[in-house]
Amino acid sequence: MKPPWLNKKIHLGSCSEMKNLLRGMKLETVCEQASCPNIGECFSRSHATFLILGPQCTRSCSFCNVTKGIPSMPDAGEPARVADAVKKLALKHVVITSVTRDDLADGGAGMFADTVLSIRKTAPQAAIELLIPDFKLSSDSLRTVAESGPDIIAHNVETVPSLYRSVRRGSDYKRSLGVLDAIKKISPCLKTKSGVMLGLGEKESEVIAVMGDLRAVGCDFLSIGQYLAPSRLHYPVKEYISPERFAYYKEKGLSIGFSHIESGPYVRSSYLAGEYL
Q1: pLDDT for 13
Q2: Which residues, other chains included, contact 170 with Cβ-Cβ below 8 Å and sequence gap of 6+?
Q3: Mean pLDDT in the chain?
Q4: Is beta strand 28-29 parallel, antiparallel or unpaired with respect to 49-52?
Q5: Which tens digits make up the pLDDT trace of 109-166?
Q6: Which stretches of the chain are DSSP H helices?
Q7: What is the pLDDT of residue 65?
Q8: What is the distance between the alpha carbons of residues 228 and 200, in angstroms, rounded to a whole number?
Q9: In what side-by-side order are the strands of the sheet with 260-263?
C-alpha cells in the first residue's frame, strides 16, 4: 500500500490538447511512453520531454515502461518537427531524450545533434537539455552531442552499482560515470546532470557514495525521485522513501558541491527541468 504522500492524481483529461498536437506532428514523448505520474501537470502547462529515434528500446531495463523491441530506422524529418513543436509551444526549456539505439553505429548521436541545430534555428529562445543514453561510451558519439551546442547534457545512473545486474541489464555503472566524465572533458563549461531512483533496495550509504562518484566526474545537477513500478511485471518497489529522507539527501548533495538538486517522491529527471539553470 502506498503511503499518504504518494497520492498524486493523474488528470488525463487535461492532456488531450497536448496529445492531439503531438500526434498531429508525429512526435513521441517519454512522458507517455514511461507512464510518468507528472504527465497531467506537465501537459496542462504545455511541457513535454520529446522522445526521438522511435519508441522501441534495444535494452531491457526491468524498471522502465518504454517498449523493448526491434526499432525502425531513424526519421530524418524528426528534428525539424521537434523544433516546430518547441516553437508552437513557446518552450523556454526543452528536454530531448531517446531510447537506447545499440543497433545504430553512432547510437543516435547524429539525430540528437540535428535536433539541437534545428531548435537553435527555429526556436532560438529555448534552452536545450539532452538526456542521452550511454552510446557505449563512444568518444565520437559523445563529442557529436557535446559539440552540437546544448545547454545541459544529462545521463542518468538511475540506481546504485549493486543493483545494476537486476535493474539495468545491458548497462554498466562505470560506463555511465564515464559518459559524464567524457562530456566534461570535451566541453568543460557544459552543465551535466544525472538522476537516481530510490526505493529499489539501495542502502543510504550507497546513495551517498553515488553522489560522491557523480561529483568526482564534475556532475553539476542531480534529480532524486521515488521509483514506482509501472506494472506487476516490472521490478518491484522495495521501499517508499519519506519526504524527510528526500530532503536529507538533497541537503547532503548540496553540501558536497552539486549546484542544484530536485529531490522528492515525484521528482523525475525532466520534471522542473528549467529550474536547474
Answers
A1: 56
A2: 59, 60, 61, 100, 102
A3: 91
A4: antiparallel
A5: 999 999 999 999 999 999 999 999 999 999 999 999 999 999 999 999 999 999 998 8
A6: 16-24, 30-33, 39-44, 78-88, 109-122, 139-146, 164-167, 173-186, 204-216, 243-255
A7: 61
A8: 9
A9: 28-29, 49-52, 93-98, 127-131, 152-154, 191-198, 221-226, 260-263
Q: Give the tens place of pLDDT for each residue, 37-75.
A: 777 778 877 788 999 998 877 777 666 666 677 888 999
Write down the pTM of the prediction: 0.93
Render pLDDT for 177-234 as a digit per residue (tens, 0 to 9).
999 999 999 999 999 999 999 999 999 999 999 999 999 999 999 999 999 987 788 8
Residue whose cell numbers read 521490478: 235
Who contacts 16 (Cβ-Cβ below 8 Å, separation ≥6)?
none
Which residue from 149, 145, 230, 203 is spatially nearest to 179, judged by alpha carbons?
Answer: 145
Tell me how far apart the alpha carbons of residues 188 and 194 are, in angstroms, rounded to a whole number.
16
DSSP 265: T
Selection from 66, 65, 103 nearest residue 231 by Cα: 65
SS3 182: helix
The cell for 140 is 565520437
Q: DSSP string covering 92-145, please?
A: SEEEEEE---TTSTTTTHHHHHHHHHHHHHH-TT-EEEEE---GGG-HHHHHHH
Letter for the amino acid at 270?
A: S
Domains of the chain, by residue range, sit at 12-276
Closest to 197 (Cα-Cα) out of 270, 263, 277:
263
12-276 has CATH 3.20.20.70 classification: yes
Q: Which residues pair with 202 in a beta bridge?
A: none
pLDDT for position 18: 83
